[in-house]
Amino acid sequence: MTTLTDPPKESFRLSMLIYDTRYRSATIQVVALMGFMLAAAWLIDNTITNLESLGKTITFGFFTEPAGYDINQRLLDYQSRDTHLRAALVGLLNTLTVAVLGCITATVVGVLVGVLRLSKNWIVAKIMTVYVEIFRNVPVLLWIVLVFALVSESTPHPKTFKGVDTGAVVVTNRGTYLPEFLFSNSLGDLSFFGASSLRFNVSLDLIAFLVVLFGGLFVSRKIKRSADAVQEATGIRPATWWKRLAVIALPIAALLYALGFHLGYAELKGFNFKGGTHLRNSLLALWLALSLYTAAFIAEIVRGGILAISHGQTEAAGALGLRSGRIMSLVVLPQALRVIIPPMISNYLNLTKNSSLAIAVGYMDITGTLGGITMNQTGRELECVLLLMAVYLIISLSISGVMNVYNSRVKLVER
Amino acid sequence: MNKSVILGAATVACLSAGAAAAGTLDDVKARGKLNCGVASGLVGFATPDANGEWGGFDVAVCRAVAAAVLGDPKAVEFVPTTGKTRFTALASGEIDMLARNTTWTFSRDVDLKFTFVGVNYYDGQGFMVPKELGVSSAKELDGATVCIQTGTTTELNLADFFRTNGISYEPVPIETNAEAQQQYLAGACDVYTTDASGLAATRAAFEAPNDHTVLPEIISKEPLGPLVRHGDNEWGDVVRWTLNALITAEELGVTSANVAEMAAGTENPEVNRLLGSEGSLGEMLGLDAEWAKRAVMAGGNYGEVFEKNIGENTPIGLARGLNAQYTDGGLIYSPPFR
After folding, report:
1. B28 vs B23: CA distance, rounded Å
2. Does A61 contact chain B (CB < 8 Å)?
3. What is the fold of B125-220?
């Protein structure tokens, strides 16, 4: 009879949590996590206790009550009897408007400045350097206020236009009026969500225009493909630019004619101009200041991206006989994009978040409506601020989501 | 070292959070200073002078309370607030009381959990326009651009007024009165609307006040008064009765000039009770017997405060109107000191 005995197992001792390197890192992490959770619990508990002692509860019921205030710039139909929810939506659209306009302008200006800063022309390069350094190193709020002061102080009062033939574009100290697009045979609107706070209309004219535009682009692409095929086969590229232009432009022209397209000009009536597309000074100031400020950062990113591409690439492309414009567009920029896009995302996010400075010039973005007047009139600070944070979080995550998809398309494919 | 600093800061935060729950009166006494929220600059109501000393009609209420509680009208820390920040400042305990031409409304009282201790100015919303516009009534303002302070009751009244009259307008939301003044003078808006007293005060600060006119329409009731947080009735009583003391002092003819003399004792028992030579009203409030005497000495009685800051002999030039004593046909009326 044999007895088998295992070697005695090393029993677990509490001190091993600290002195045994196998457990130590886990111990530290658990302690840190508990500390963090305690701090969070203390904060939340403190908030709830204090709200209770003030006799306030967290409720979102105010959203369905009438807002009672008016908003000057509104992309949805809105009047003061609409709900706080709708006021917040109007503000949200205003935020998105300035964010989209700002991102586009900032990109265009930024890329231009970034490329020009690398120019061999000494004066151009220095001017761009000065631009970048000035805009980058002064807080954006000051730029917004400065631009607003400039556009409202340096422009004439509407009444100075009395009896003057104003023409298509009117610049006043209350904003700039551009011609608006009008259709005499309009197809009408498509309404969604009936009469609820979420209701919105989509112009059928716009949908028709987009359908025709994308149809034209699609056909134009087909023409390009077939031209590519001819070039591959014979080495001669047929001239297609007029065909491609025609398939886009002619159907659009026909559609606009059928809809009775004409421009509506702003006219001075009473105190202000009526009609036209009114770009308020608050929007102009915010848009310009945010764009120019962010463009300075983008310029540096673009410059860095281009400099990151080895000069050998340019020389090699030159040796193949490519012209310098082609070298930039076919060889350098596609590679530079890989370096440029990730920091670009954070600049788009910055621009969007900086748009919350809108209240400085009285632009009614979501911070001005939900986080400003609604919060103030209802006294629901916590609810409004939490919602506001959630809204900005969602906008930012969406932007980075889209940009990350784009980034994964341009980045180096590793095989 | 860093950690202990953070822990220390957290402890201080805990302690101060705990202290806020105790009585505000004790807090103010322990601190030796009254934190009073005022407007961020409205001539006549609350504005710092060239030396940085705050003065004005609302500021006088703060000074009277400080004098009553702490014995020193200068023991006030003035916290400038905007229409948007004022309620958060009060609710969070950053300020002990708010005296910032704030309209007493149902929802502010009931829903926002504040206690309005009284009315120190009966006001109403008006419109100011440049004379050259040739407008004589607010109903002619169809299509006008209107500057408005955001976060105020005037914002809501304005929307209602234009809607019920079926006329349109373009609101220009603005954060402070100073900004509104600048925008209005720059012509960025045709009309400036706020409480009529605020309009008078703003106009007084213009280079050419006579080029501007206040339209006859008063479109709302705006009873302006100091307020405190809900739930601290002892402190609410102190502020309420300090304001009432100023009003009663005017009614009984107690002025800053004769208060010291009258405090020695008079034929009128109500004056004696007010000034502490008879009864123990101050003790009931948790203060000493001479609280009201000091409050009146701080800036004079209600009428003196009015005349000195916004009355007809000041650039603002407001008539007493509704704000006369009830004995003179106004609405200013204090419950008796008994």
Report:
1. 9
2. no
3. D-Maltodextrin-Binding Protein; domain 2 (3.40.190)
